[in-house]
Write a structure and sequence with these properties.
This protein has three helices and twelve strands. The chain is mainly beta and 285 residues long. The protein has a domain at 5-142 and 207-241: outer membrane lipoprotein receptor (LolB), chain A, CATH 2.50.20.
């Protein structure tokens, strides 16, 4: 059976609980989106149909903010029993980032702790995007990946350009008896400099939809992008936190390579660009 590094990378592209935890909804490490402030609600829905016909449906809601300086904030609650939260109860988190300064924090309100996110994280994401683009070019040349324009339409009050990216994994490439077709529908607003709608369908993992709603085009309160004065700042991520559930579990933020619950992505770190970018997310295959 052959490995599928491109598939592993694409598995990490769609937003979900892992992305919510790491806060990858802001502009990637190539610079901040300035002078385009907004706030919005974000809804991520995942549906997975099991072999016996049973269905697993999970919904994650979050609030996102970006100010005129390009700083970003995401507030989210992970449901109990999810891939990133096995604590037995819902848990709330906040991620704030300043792409221009290269700083970021994960806030844990219930403990009043702010964990400083590693600076190397941005560099690894940039490196991963470059490798991903190289792989994608090869796959487009071979016909394994195709892109088609879906035109323009208004989503959540903003104009967005859509495209459908289809990838076909040939039979036998990863041990599959038949070809596997994976589709991604991406709607990007140049006006907002953000992805406003993503739809992914992968027979291996089910379907995922991410959408921004209630978009407000005004400057958020500056306090939203600051660590509260009563929080204790800790350096780096705590491996003992497991998947933000209990402690002493493997596969947390310092998880082993390739574990979807940790940062051990296929490129040696979490490479997903997130749904709020300066350029349309062509890499979302």
């Amino acid at each position: 059976m052959h490995g599928d590094p491109m598939g592993e990378q694409m598995d990490a592209e769609m937003p979900g609980e892992e992305m919510e935890v790491l806060g990858f909804g802001e502009a990637p490490g190539d610079g901040a989106v300035k002078s385009v402030p907004y706030s919005a609600k974000a809804l991520t829905e995942r549906t997975h149909v099991l072999g016996d016909g049973n269905r697993i449906h999970r919904t994650t809601e979050s609030a996102v903010y970006r100010d005129g300086q390009g700083r970003f904030r995401r507030e989210f609650t992970l449901p109990a029993g999810g891939p990133m939260n096995d604590s037995g109860k819902p848990r709330s988190f906040i991620v704030i980032r300043d792409p221009g300064a290269g700083t970021g924090f994960l806030l844990i309100p219930e403990r009043k702790i702010a964990r400083k996110l590693p600076a190397r994280m941005q560099e690894r994401r940039a490196e991963g995007r470059e490798r991903f683009q190289e792989m994608r070019k090869k796959m487009e040349a071979s016909g394994e990946v195709k892109t088609e324009s879906l035109g323009t339409k208004t989503i959540a009050g903003v104009p967005a350009e859509g495209k459908r990216i289809t990838r076909v994994i040939p039979a036998g490439k990863i041990g599959n008896e038949k070809a596997i077709e994976i589709t991604n529908e991406v709607w990007y607003s140049k006006e907002l400099h953000a992805v406003v709608l993503l739809k992914r369908n992968d027979p291996r993992n089910g379907s995922t939809t991410y959408q921004l709603t209630d978009i407000q085009r005004k400057e958020p309160d500056a306090k939203l992008f600051q660590v509260p004065s009563d929080y204790k700042i800790r350096e780096g991520m705590d491996g003992r936190m497991g998947r933000f559930g209990g402690r002493g579990q493997r596969g947390g933020m310092g998880g082993r390579r390739g574990h979807r619950g940790g940062m051990g992505g296929p490129m040696g770190g979490d490479q997903r660009p997130g749904p709020d970018q300066q350029q349309p997310p062509d890499q979302n295959l």
